[in-house]
Amino acid sequence: MIEARLRLARGAFTLDVSLALPSTGVSVLFGPSGCGKTTLLRCLAGLERAPEGRVVVDGEAWQDGHAFLPPHRRAVGVVFQDAGLFEHLDVRANVEFGWRRLPASQRRIAIEDAVAWTGIAPLLDRSTTGLSGGERQRVAIARALAVSPRLLLMDEPLAALDARRKAEILPAIDRLSALSGLAIVYVTHAIAEVARLADHVVLMDGGRVTAAGPVGELLSRLDLPLPPGEDAGVVLQGVVGALDAPWHLARLDASGASFWTRDPGLPVGHRLRLRVLARDVSLGLAEQAGTSILNQIRATVEAIADDAHPAQVLVRVRTQAGGSALLARVTRRSAQALALAPGQAVWAMVKSVALLD
Question: What is the spatial distance between Cα 54 and Cα 68, in angstroms, rounded to a whole number?
């Protein structure tokens, strides 16, 4: 468990947070620019000192009323938006820089593992000056892993990358989270990165934590200021339940719901993450015949809230047997015509499911 109670004033801005994060998986600090995400990350790293603050990682106090461990004494790796590689060293020497200065007894992560998890083996003998932005960030992550951190901090590592480079590095971050068992604290203001990476989300605004919890719960809430536009939707944990080879389809099973989608080429039993956008979900009072939509799921209306445009509302439904939550975007006219209200039985018709594997 990572515990932090921090208060830090900088001019007109004040960071005032109290939170507890899991000691495994990816915890994402999410919110608009200037909300305090980076300041909180720097406090965890020891780069900023909050007077009378407290930071405890797996029972070890990194900061409290009696002690303050400087960054080099914290078992922490940090990756910033700028990779900050040593240009006079090749990739291998960059990765080994901190590892060589670490006592052998403290080397819990092997160089070979750091290289494998980030996929940089083909780059080891190259100069850093010829690397792409995505390659530079993967090298920076490997270098941070090589110092055997208990906590990996990542401050908007994809912000300077284009869509292609982001697509290269996101799977690497996801993979190292699964394989390393490390706690990762990841800062972003991009909801797509939250959906792709987060296990736990901390929503911040104005230097304070406004909500925190598992990603599946927070993205489905209607009372939070998460982006309500085209990005509104939920993230579900699923598994490949069956394959329909003649039609090149796969059935993806989540809690209380199954979705047919195009075959992603993964075996039955493979675990993956699904994203269902509210714009791809419609509601009806009965199962529909004569439709091209394959996914029709029994559900119950839980809540209705205003959407970004006054012509629309967001409806949260829960699939049968208390399963997964889904969001649906419908017009107010349709909501009134169907007399939608909490507790009402409906059919959720899901047109498209995005795979975040």
Answer: 9
Domain ranges of the chain: 2-219, 233-355
| One-letter amino acid of 47 | L
Task: Looking at the structure, give the CATH architecture of the domain made up of residues 2-219.
Answer: 3-Layer(aba) Sandwich (3.40)
DSSP per-residue letters across 155-199:
ESTTTTS-HHHHHHHHHHHHHHHHHH--EEEEEES-HHHHHHH-S
Determine the pLDDT at residue 97: 85
Closest CA to 349 of 286, 273, 255: 286
What does DSSP assign to residue 105?
Answer: G
Where is 224: in which H helix or E strand? none
Q: Which of 355, 304, 354, 311 is nearest to 328 (CA)?
A: 304
Q: What is the pLDDT of residues 2-18, one digit of tens each?
A: 999 999 888 888 889 99
Residues 77, 71: Cα–Cα separation, whole Å:
9
pLDDT digits (tens, 9 = 90+) for 259-277: 999 998 889 999 888 889 9
DSSP 284-320: ESSPPSS-S--EEEEEEEEEEEE-SSTTEEEEEEEEG
Question: Amino acid identity, residue 40?
Answer: L
pTM value is 0.84
Interior/surface letters 17-40, b for 16+ CB within 10 angstroms, e for the rest:
bebebebebbbbbbbeeebbbbbb
CATH fold, domain 233-355, is OB fold (Dihydrolipoamide Acetyltransferase, E2P) (2.40.50)
Residue whose pair of structure tokens reads 């921090």 in the numeric block:
6
Evaluate whether 65 touches 113 at the Cβ level (below 8 Å): no
- 353 DSSP assignment: -
The predicted-structure confidence for 125-166, as pLDDT tens digits, reads as follows 888 888 888 888 888 888 988 888 888 999 988 887 778 878
